[in-house]
Write a structure and sequence with these properties.
5-stranded mixed β-sheet, 245 residues, alpha/beta, 39% helix, 23% strand
C-alpha cells in the first residue's frame, strides 16, 4: 500500500513539474496552411491585391469572432508561397484573439515576395503544406490546406491530384480558390478535378484578382468555422461551390 501511495505521489510530482499545457494538451480548432500562387502570371499588381487580401482576411472582425466561438479558442496558421518551388512566408502562428490576428497580418504584409521561379506547380505547394503539419505546435481538431492560384500545373515532379490524394490520406482537407478571367478562365474546372479533396472540401471562385480579397475572406471564414457550403453566390464577383456540385 505504501509503495502504491509513493508511486502515485511521484507521478503527481512529475505532472506538476511539466510546463503548463503538457499535463492537459492544448489543442487548436483547426490548423490551416494558406498556399498562395506567386508564379509568373502573378504580376506586381496582382501580387499586391493577393497579399493585401490575405492580410485583410486575417485581421477581419468576422475571423476574430470565430476564434472566441471555437471549442479550443485557438487556430494555427501558416502561409506558403509557391511557383516552381515553395517558400514559407508565415511560419506556424497560433492566434487566439484580434491582437494575435493583427500581428500575423502585419507579418504577412511586411514579408518580401517569394521569388521561386515562374512556372506553376500547385502539387509542390500542396506537398510543402502537407509537410508543414508535422511541425505544427499544437494538435488540431481539423487540418486544412487552402490553395489559391490562377493557372493549372505546367511543371513539377508529380501530378497535382497525386499530391492532393497524399494530403487527404493524412486526414487533411484541401480546399481551392481558383482565380478566373486571367490567362486560364476555366481554371476553376481544373481545380475542382485536381486540387480539392477530403472531408467537406470546397472551392470559392474569384472572378478576377479584384474579387480575390472578398473571396478569400469568405473562404477563410468558412474554413475556420468548419462549414461546407452549398452552391451560393458569395458576392457579385465570387461564388462558392462544395465538392458535391
Amino acid at each position: 500500500m505504501k509503495a502504491r501511495v509513493a508511486a502515485a505521489t511521484a507521478v503527481a510530482l512529475v505532472v506538476a513539474a511539466l510546463p503548463q499545457g503538457r499535463a492537459a494538451e492544448a489543442r487548436a480548432d483547426v490548423a490551416l496552411v494558406l498556399a498562395i500562387d506567386v508564379s509568373g502570371s502573378v504580376d506586381d499588381a496582382r501580387f499586391a491585391l493577393q497579399r493585401d487580401g490575405v492580410a485583410a482576411a486575417l485581421e477581419s472582425s468576422d475571423f476574430a469572432a470565430l476564434l472566441s466561438g471555437g471549442t479550443n479558442g485557438a487556430v494555427e496558421i501558416a502561409v506558403v508561397e509557391w511557383a516552381e518551388e515553395q517558400s514559407v512566408v508565415l511560419p506556424w502562428t497560433v492566434v487566439r484573439n484580434g491582437a494575435d490576428l493583427a500581428a500575423a497580418a502585419g507579418r504577412v504584409r511586411r514579408a518580401a515576395r517569394s521569388w521561386v521561379h515562374t512556372k506553376t506547380d500547385p502539387a509542390g505547394g500542396i506537398a510543402a503544406a502537407d509537410l508543414l503539419f508535422s511541425s505544427a505546435p499544437m494538435t488540431a481538431d481539423r487540418k486544412v490546406i487552402d490553395v489559391s492560384g490562377d493557372g493549372r500545373q505546367n511543371t513539377g515532379e508529380i501530378p497535382t491530384a497525386e499530391a492532393r490524394d497524399a494530403a487527404v490520406a493524412h486526414n487533411i482537407t484541401v480546399n481551392g480558390l481558383p482565380i478566373t478571367l486571367g490567362d486560364d478562365p476555366h481554371v476553376d474546372d481544373w481545380y475542382r478535378e485536381n486540387v480539392i479533396g477530403g472531408t467537406g472540401a470546397f472551392i470559392v471562385v474569384a472572378d478576377g484578382y479584384d474579387a480575390f480579397a472578398a473571396a478569400f475572406r469568405q473562404k477563410l471564414t468558412l474554413e475556420v468555422a468548419g462549414r461546407t457550403p452549398a452552391l451560393t453566390f458569395a458576392s457579385r464577383s465570387a461564388r462558392i461551390e462544395d465538392e458535391g456540385d
